[in-house]
Amino acid sequence: MGLWKTATGPQDDTDSVHTADQKSILERTPSQNDPVASANQAAGTAWLAGHLHHLTPEQEAKLAEFKTVCEQKGYYKPEKDGQPASHDDATLLRFLRARKFDVNGAFNQFKDTEEWRKNNNIESLYENIDVESYEESRRMYPQWTGRRDRRGIPVYVFVVKHLNSKNMAEYTSKVSSSAPADTHKSSKVPPRLLRLFALYENMLRFVLPLCSKLPRPNPETPIVTSTNIVDISGVGLRQFWNLRSHMQDASVLATAHYPETLDRIFIIGAPSFFPTVWGWIKRWFDPVTVSKIFILSDKEVKPTLESFMDPSSFPKQYGGELDWEWGDPPLLDEPARELAGGLELPAGEGEKRPGFIKGPVLFHGDKIEVLGTENGKPRRATIPVPQPEETKANGEAVTKPSDENEKTALETANGAAPVSNETPVA
């Protein structure tokens, strides 16, 4: 039994095993980085404060004011004549929460981000990145397991020991020698950071929209954050030092241009010297981010993760039931497979489970776009997303898109000759 229930008191004899060491800290707040209190908060609706459909009257007024300021300055277009707004409310609220609903502060960060996205052509970067280059970078940063916690927030895992000096040198060499996409040949941004931008875009434009469409306790509020399990077991002091710029880049980028996209970080496998290392690592993060980081002892890992997510949603090596390891593609559960199963690939020889298409994809709710470039040529296909069956006025059920259409589009995206022309996009 995990902390999800023990945070409010033991439920049975099994619960008492976990509560014995926890009773003295149950009254502490999540800001003190206590996993029990944090789980207690997540079990209710307190974590939704400041999110869409969970705003106070004052916050609603601040959102309206923020939209007006952004529109007047030319950074936002409201919905008009059937055309959607340039930015949804959930995105605007991320910037407001990051600045504690200070409209001027939120606008300055939003303006800087919009100009940064324009100057670096971020959307085009993601849509045209070389597929293999994208995959090389995906293996160097947190990876989505294909699962979610109890609130519907996607679970990422980052196993740091794989980023040793040899692998880092090989990665740096490949990045330095690879040619950027045609759309970014004139960019002054280092290729290593261009690739990192693409990974954040995948979270923002595929993983989070997909998770927002899946069943969860509060479907009225879009999913805008991720939870990360960071495994630092087997990492030495020298390796931490060598990785400092690699990890700083990700932290600075997230804080500046992807605010409020982190729910929690669970650090596990911390070596004995980690308290010393943590003293300088936490300076890379702003105080709000630091309050979301939990350093777990070995005995805390399983009960803490269970307090946030079902055992089927986190890997076996951390006490869960998920047969997923670092480097594996996303392993979708059944609800996610119903919407995005068209991205799965047949299991390879000797493999027991399906693969997953590589490279950039976009989730639009009613369709998935497969993008990127392969051998210098654009890869383009559209896969329909099955919609819940609706009933026509005469009582007849609306037909869902067929699996054959999904197969056709995916074959086209992977270079196979299409068997029909219903779904591929030129």
UniProtKB/TrEMBL annotation:
Residues 133-326 form the CRAL-TRIO domain. SUPFAM superfamilies: CRAL/TRIO domain, CRAL/TRIO N-terminal domain. It comes from the Eukaryota. InterPro entries: CRAL-TRIO_dom, CRAL-TRIO_dom_sf, CRAL/TRIO_N_dom, CRAL/TRIO_N_dom_sf, PI/PC_transfer. Residues 1-39, 373-426 are annotated as: Disordered. Residues 29-39 have a biased composition (Polar residues). Residues 15-26 have a biased composition (Basic and acidic residues). Gene3D superfamilies: CRAL-TRIO lipid binding domain (3.40.525.10), N-terminal domain of phosphatidylinositol transfer protein sec14p (1.10.8.20). PANTHER family: CRAL-TRIO DOMAIN-CONTAINING PROTEIN YKL091C-RELATED (PTHR45657), TRANSPORTER, PUTATIVE (AFU_ORTHOLOGUE AFUA_5G09260)-RELATED (PTHR45657:SF3). This is CRAL-TRIO domain-containing protein. It comes from Rasamsonia emersonii (strain ATCC 16479 / CBS 393.64 / IMI 116815).
